[in-house]
Design goal:
By secondary structure, the chain is mainly α. The protein is built from 13 helices and no strands. Helices cover 64% and strands 0% of the residues. Helix 1 packs across helix 13 and helix 9 packs across helix 10.
């Protein structure tokens, strides 16, 4: 007689845990479409940013009487060419633009070069006193520039550089902020393995800097160049001390004497001069902005 044993109870079906979506899964990085609120905020931000420039153009196209009236004009007038002619010829704006372009370009180029070299040294090279020297460089940023005016002016006078462009250029060839900025960028952006691989291939220090450091640091160099150029372009305090309006003035020194009359100031002409001085900065932003985006794109790694 065959005894049939009861079959063991069936195991309950196992429920697989919900798969956790990886951030590297296909579609994980898809951007969401912006909603209406995002467009409203962007339009408001663009309006707030561009309105001062627009009103500067409007004010430059009116005469001084209309600019000072209330409410202020919001539509362009018919005096723009007249104000441009007065502003351009009253203080020799062309010469001031050339001088300012030379000063800002030289200061920007030297600051980017020296700051990148010093930043690379502080970030990737090991030498005695590195941290102490970096601390000293950063500490100089806390010294107000007004404290150095008298000894600096005495040095410029002894060198007989008064009312010359080198009096403005030489004290600003490198900035502590630029060194610290490039050092912080290269610490994260430049792998030590790249430098060591270049050294193994027989590259000397100059080739490492030219073929490894500069390509990696190009986005930060463009940002530093833009910031330095704007700062040098708008600098007024030191150029006003060592330069004169009749010698080799920069743009800000010339603007200080623009629109002056018999106990009155032509506000429209002053705003026209400010408009002239703003246009080159907009061109610099447009030019270096492409390099910033291009440098970031070139440095991206596709996995």
């Amino acid at each position: 007689m065959t005894v049939q044993l009861p079959a063991p109870p069936a195991a309950p079906p196992t429920v697989a845990p919900a798969a956790r979506r990886s951030r590297f899964a296909p579609g994980a990085g898809d951007q969401r479409k912006a909603g209406p609120l995002a467009y409203v905020l962007l339009i408001v931000a663009a309006f707030v940013s561009l309105f001062p420039l627009y009103w500067n153009v409007v004010a430059a196209s009116h005469d001084s009487t209309r600019v000072q009236q209330a409410p202020a004009p919001l539509l362009p007038g018919s005096h723009l060419l007249e104000n441009l002619d007065v502003a351009w010829n009253q203080v020799h704006m062309g010469v001031a633009l050339i001088n300012t372009t030379v000063v800002a370009s030289v200061i920007s180029a030297s600051t980017v070069l020296f700051a990148t070299l010093a930043g690379f040294a502080f970030a990737k090279l090991h030498f005695k006193g590195r941290n102490m020297l970096l601390a000293l460089v950063v500490a100089t940023m806390t010294v107000p520039p007004q404290l150095t005016v008298i000894p600096l002016y005495q040095i410029i006078t002894d060198l007989q550089w008064t009312d010359t462009l080198q009096a403005v250029i030489m004290p600003s060839l490198v900035a502590a902020f630029g060194v610290f900025f490039m050092r912080q960028y290269l610490v994260e952006a430049l792998p030590v393995e790249l430098v060591e691989a270049a050294r193994v291939d027989g590259a000397n220090s100059l080739r490492v800097i030219w073929h490894v450091v500069f390509p990696v640091a190009r986005p930060a160099m463009a940002v530093l160049a833009m910031l330095t150029f704007v700062q040098a372009w708008n600098d007024f305090f030191w150029p006003f001390i060592v330069l004169t309006d009749t010698g080799t003035p920069t743009l800000q020194v010339s603007l200080a004497n623009l629109g002056a009359g018999n106990h009155t100031v032509d506000t429209a002409v002053v705003l026209t001069g400010a408009l002239i001085s703003t246009v080159p900065l907009l061109l610099v932003f447009a030019f270096l902005g492409k390099h910033i985006v291009g440098g970031i794109t070139a440095g991206a790694v596709k996995s």
